[in-house]
Amino acid sequence: MVFPVLPLYESTGKPLLSVVGQALYRFNGSNTDAIVQISKYTPNLNVFVELAVNEISDAIVEQLLSLYNNGVCSVLATPEQGSVILEKIPNARITYKASENKQYQSIAYVLGSSLPQTIDEKITAFVYVEDTLSLEELQKLVKSGYIPIIKSDLLTNEYEDVKGQYPLVDFIIPKIVTDRADGLYTTLVVDSSNQSLGLVYSSVTSISESIRTGTGVYQSRKHGLWYKGKTSGATQKLISFDLDCDSDCLKAIVEQSGSGFCHLSTNSCFGNFTGLKALEATLFQRKTDAPEGSYTKRLFDDESLLNAKIKEEAEELADAKTKEEIAWEAADLFYFALARCAKYNVTLADIEKNLDMKALKVSRRKGDAKPKFIEKKQSTEKSEINERHIGPDDKIYLNRINAATASKEEVEACLERPIQKSADIMSLVTPIVENVKANGDKALLELTAKFDRVQLDSPVLFAPYKPDMMQISEKLKKAIDVSFENIRIFHEAQNQKDILTVETSPGVYCSRFARPIEKVGCYIPGGTAVLPSTSLMLSVPALVAGCKEIIFASPPGKDGKLTPEVVYVAHKVGAKCIVMAGGAQAVAAMAYGTESVPKCDKIMGPGNQFVTAAKMLVSNDSNALCAIDMPAGPSEVLVIADKHADPDFVASDLLSQAEHGIDSQVILLAVDMTDAEVDSIDEAVHRQALALPRVDIVRKCIAHSTTIVVKTLDEAFEMSNKYAPEHLILQIENAEEWVPKVDNAGSVFVGALSPESCGDYSSGTNHTLPTYGYARMYSGVNTATFQKFITSQVVTREGLKNIGPAVMDLAEVEGLDGHRNAVRVRMDKLGMLPEGY
């Protein structure tokens, strides 16, 4: 319930009686902007306007709409005026001026008319009064439920020397009721955001003093008048008074300063604020007095970083799917948004004022997104070629086209990968990498808390690893041991231990020998599936190559623990430590090193688009001096199958890749198959998919995957080489005879009994492979990935005689006389310098 008086201001200046929380201005058609300024920028003020025009034109209605859209809560109009504006303005936002009792939601009576004796408490009833009315008559109106409308110059904040004016306190006192023996009024003190600060008591005198001074003044039951903060310095500025629905509780709305409301120096008598209020307080405190190394202070000082983080968090919120993820990302966005607000002295109260104003709008924009965001969405939709929605009850099957009847463009579209928004992703990754680079362990722990939802004491787990960290079943341990040994054998066979020496000319001996890269980082992703097999595929070749330090990086679970299988592999290969982090922050930590994380010379391992972007970023930074294995994208498989292939085998290979993630891609090239034969594969896909725990992921992956029917095997291999798949599976007759046709692929699985799963785990080949078409120019991880190759040469007297003239001639052509001279001096001293040199 509002303060029971509505001051009428003859001019559109700042309301001097703002303590009542409402003001009335006359709208004459020429003062729209002035009223808007008051409505928008005066906190905790409800603005009313009285329609004071002779004729209501379309222009006047448009100005009224502008007033409503900028926070004016109601217009006082005659019933005749109301009928004209009602077409565009809701009835609930009109206060009707009437001389008789009518059923209006909000009504303003003219004094002298027949006023109802009782008023429905759900109706707001104003009454225009003149200065001839006595204070006792006014108070009688207030007690009856009316809110007097009185010219502002007839009202005063004073209560003793009133000079013929009406004291504001005399309007609220008749409304307050109390059942206390001492006659004091229960008073709830709140801040401008309606956050409770404490419960106190008021008296007629304390209320009068509070209104007069514009400060928080209350009635102590022991010490009399209590001027809040007079001795402690925690003063209050009074914004307004309000009443509850039963008028038995007064609410004082204040701006609190100092250490807080409570004598215990807490924000309120109910303890300190939490949530947004606590965050706001911290941000404003950091702005004036930030501790050393404060990230918030860094945001205040670096506008571009702050803006980038807001955009980053907005995108992450838009991408979040679960309730927990949305809440987490929204909290991050609020933090950075409020940091920007605090930087420019914008408070929560200012934001809430704008929210309230938006709620009062009567004109609504269409609400479409800005063109640049629409364009982004359209480009994404365009990249998702042939994608369709597969509902939970729909059949799961691949899209299908026939290369013989489809256009070249349609076939190529089916082989397009989903577009990676590289620039957008890099703009999100760069601040993360820079943060870790600048702040080390501190940033790593903060980012792990943010992205992995876990608070850690240390970002690194060092060897030796405790047995309870790698507790796995004997069955699983045996499986890892078998895989370990097969991977070791195959990669050991690749290890070039012998020095390659070639005599290129008589007396000229050129050699090449391998040396291990000293410190290597093995990134083992978490994501939608735990991948301990990746730890084997990366660390066993590193072990074989002879790397001195092997560093693992893998995100912890929400319990703060690592996957025990990964710890077991780390123990088995002698890894120095495990960085307990994932994503771009883990890559950055290994690339640059931190207080705890050793700097690595090269980083290997698959990951999502953020990991790939971070790897590309650090590899291009000369300050990092860190190489990477290869770029990577979503996992993929291409199966070439002929009519002799078992549909269940084909379906199982497609699904084993589809379960990796919704952005994975599976392609089936069906060679000379009939519709019925392809249908049998689709049926097997649907049947087997429903039995998989990750069927929801499979459903989304299959939606943008395709079967392409081709006529011949030659056509299929030509298409496959152009696509350059990560995994190529040959389910065709005499499959081994067709392997020479393969030019571009990460790894090939030959024959019906060679599923991709075997290469992923235990056959011995490596499953860290080039994706996204990079198989055209990159190899998968192998022993040489963890080595560098050094060349050497020995030139004898005979050799110098044979190649010396050629060296001098080429150096002379290039204008490098020092190079030429290095050979000439030697040949001259040996008496071998040819004539003319």
UniProtKB/TrEMBL annotation:
<dbReference type="GO" id="GO:0046872">
    <property type="term" value="F:metal ion binding"/>
</dbReference>
<feature type="domain" description="Phosphoribosyl-AMP cyclohydrolase">
    <location>
        <begin position="199"/>
        <end position="270"/>
    </location>
</feature>
<dbReference type="InterPro" id="IPR016298">
    <property type="entry name" value="Histidine_synth_trifunct"/>
</dbReference>
<dbReference type="Pfam" id="PF01502">
    <property type="entry name" value="PRA-CH"/>
</dbReference>
<dbReference type="InterPro" id="IPR002496">
    <property type="entry name" value="PRib_AMP_CycHydrolase_dom"/>
</dbReference>
<keyword id="KW-0520">NAD</keyword>
<dbReference type="Pfam" id="PF01503">
    <property type="entry name" value="PRA-PH"/>
</dbReference>
<dbReference type="InterPro" id="IPR001692">
    <property type="entry name" value="Histidinol_DH_CS"/>
</dbReference>
<dbReference type="InterPro" id="IPR021130">
    <property type="entry name" value="PRib-ATP_PPHydrolase-like"/>
</dbReference>
<dbReference type="InterPro" id="IPR008179">
    <property type="entry name" value="HisE"/>
</dbReference>
<dbReference type="GO" id="GO:0004399">
    <property type="term" value="F:histidinol dehydrogenase activity"/>
</dbReference>
<dbReference type="GO" id="GO:0004636">
    <property type="term" value="F:phosphoribosyl-ATP diphosphatase activity"/>
</dbReference>
<keyword id="KW-0378">Hydrolase</keyword>
<keyword id="KW-0479">Metal-binding</keyword>
<dbReference type="InterPro" id="IPR012131">
    <property type="entry name" value="Hstdl_DH"/>
</dbReference>
<keyword id="KW-0862">Zinc</keyword>
<dbReference type="GO" id="GO:0004635">
    <property type="term" value="F:phosphoribosyl-AMP cyclohydrolase activity"/>
</dbReference>
<dbReference type="InterPro" id="IPR038019">
    <property type="entry name" value="PRib_AMP_CycHydrolase_sf"/>
</dbReference>
<dbReference type="InterPro" id="IPR016161">
    <property type="entry name" value="Ald_DH/histidinol_DH"/>
</dbReference>
<dbReference type="GO" id="GO:0051287">
    <property type="term" value="F:NAD binding"/>
</dbReference>
<dbReference type="GO" id="GO:0005829">
    <property type="term" value="C:cytosol"/>
</dbReference>
<keyword id="KW-0547">Nucleotide-binding</keyword>
<keyword id="KW-0368">Histidine biosynthesis</keyword>
<keyword id="KW-0560">Oxidoreductase</keyword>
<comment type="pathway">
    <text>Amino-acid biosynthesis; L-histidine biosynthesis; L-histidine from 5-phospho-alpha-D-ribose 1-diphosphate: step 3/9.</text>
</comment>
<dbReference type="GO" id="GO:0005524">
    <property type="term" value="F:ATP binding"/>
</dbReference>
<comment type="pathway">
    <text>Amino-acid biosynthesis; L-histidine biosynthesis; L-histidine from 5-phospho-alpha-D-ribose 1-diphosphate: step 9/9.</text>
</comment>
<comment type="similarity">
    <text>In the C-terminal section; belongs to the histidinol dehydrogenase family.</text>
</comment>
<keyword id="KW-0067">ATP-binding</keyword>
<dbReference type="GO" id="GO:0000105">
    <property type="term" value="P:L-histidine biosynthetic process"/>
</dbReference>
<dbReference type="Pfam" id="PF00815">
    <property type="entry name" value="Histidinol_dh"/>
</dbReference>
<protein>
    <recommendedName>
        <fullName>Histidine biosynthesis trifunctional protein</fullName>
        <ecNumber>3.5.4.19</ecNumber>
        <ecNumber>3.6.1.31</ecNumber>
        <ecNumber>1.1.1.23</ecNumber>
    </recommendedName>
</protein>
<keyword id="KW-0028">Amino-acid biosynthesis</keyword>
<keyword id="KW-0511">Multifunctional enzyme</keyword>
